[in-house]
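Bumping with the actual sequence this time:
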Amino acid sequence: MTLRCSPVARAGLALVLGCLHLLALKHEHILGRHRVSRSFSQQKLVFYKTLYFDQQIDHFGFLENGMFKQRYLVNDQHWRQENGPILFYTGNEGDITWFCNNTGFMWDVAEEMGAMLVFAEHRYYGESMPFGDESYSNAKYLNYLTSEQALADFAVLIKALKASVKGAENSPVISVGGSYGGMLSAWLRMKYPGVVTGALAASAPIWQFTDMVPCGDFYKIVTQDFTKSGTNCSTSIRRSWVAISNVSSSAEGLQWLADKFGLCSPLKSQDVGDFKAWLQETWVNLAMVDYPYEANFLQHLPRWPVKVVCTHLQFDASVSDKQLLGGVSQAVKVYYNYTGSAACLNISETATGSLGTRGWFYQACTEMVMPMCTDGVQDMFEPQGWNPQAFSDECYALFGVRPRPQWASVAYGGKNIGSHSNIIFSNGDLDPWKSGGVTKSLSDSLVAIVIPNGAHHLDLRYSNEHDPQSVIQARALELQYIKQWIKQEQQHSRV
């Protein structure tokens, strides 16, 4: 079994920095600016300040008393300074600037809400390294890479900001996140309800854990996306695995495959498993980013990229192995070479943007254990069962640690979360991660929103002229709940 990365992401600054010189906070700041694409025909210039907060390495013990600088980004261009709301992005497994520039929803609603925007980086990703360049050097240093420590980072940072920024003492805070960041957003509200008023958890698979959902559901959704996007599309992909095995059985066939797919390196017999895994992850990534407009979240892709891919895979049962794989090669190039600028394709890369894959591998090997399997019947992939022991052994070989499969359920309540409140769980019906998401409302304030024709956290992206009506309505409903919770908190703080 191969451990793959779970494709599991500003003018007129007026932030009051007068109080940020407190020695207890030890903030440092520089001005950051970045141009992000609202669509490929429009550009929006956004600005933020980049700041650093002295954060405790270990929040739950007392022997490791070291500190590290946690990076966070702030824009208060539209903030109403007297207890105006704060939208707080709970950083994912990657560089925070990447998530900042791909979370257009927050930027789109900031003026209307009079909100300060804060994007906090997750420890061990981007620049927020607890042990500097040595952070990934050994298991002892990696021991502090957990979701619990990250949540404590966020809670401490929020408390410090509210205490130090003039006018923010009673500001309601809404956490926002997508994918793993969405899980953190929900968990932050659950674990620290005194710090966070409400949460928007987009594409947050908080139930994609051992004994919570069937291990095959994720790949069923991927297959459904391809099935409805083109005639014989998923069927052709299902047939392709045998075709690859047939063609790769000879040296001539291996050479043909390498040439046809434009691979950067020769394909050897021992590489065929990796080649198949590369293709499998490519289909998953395409399902995740099946957006209704051109986008470059993971790769520069056309509108509805799965439909474009499927135009190359409309074969009937009479197709030969090489004809079929020729179509697969053209389909794959939609993902890896839509612009035509790639000289060759590297099967060791699946283009996951600015995600920190090594850090996520470690988290998947400890507490973020998400069982997945395929059967080749209800999905379009080769059968592969979930083997906990093989997974554990590979984790031990990589990091010297073994997984705790039940820990996420113990730490965050599993499916017994009905006692919590003020969380929106949004999921697109095209998104494979919907398999582990909350798709039915659990109470009046534990709200589930399912977005037809929505891919991975489409609702958190910038509004676009090609957005389906479903995501427009979803964002309006999300904003309605968020405003309601903010109003309730503001009324409560005046009592």
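The tokens above came from a reply further down the thread. The two ends are 58 Å apart (CA to CA).
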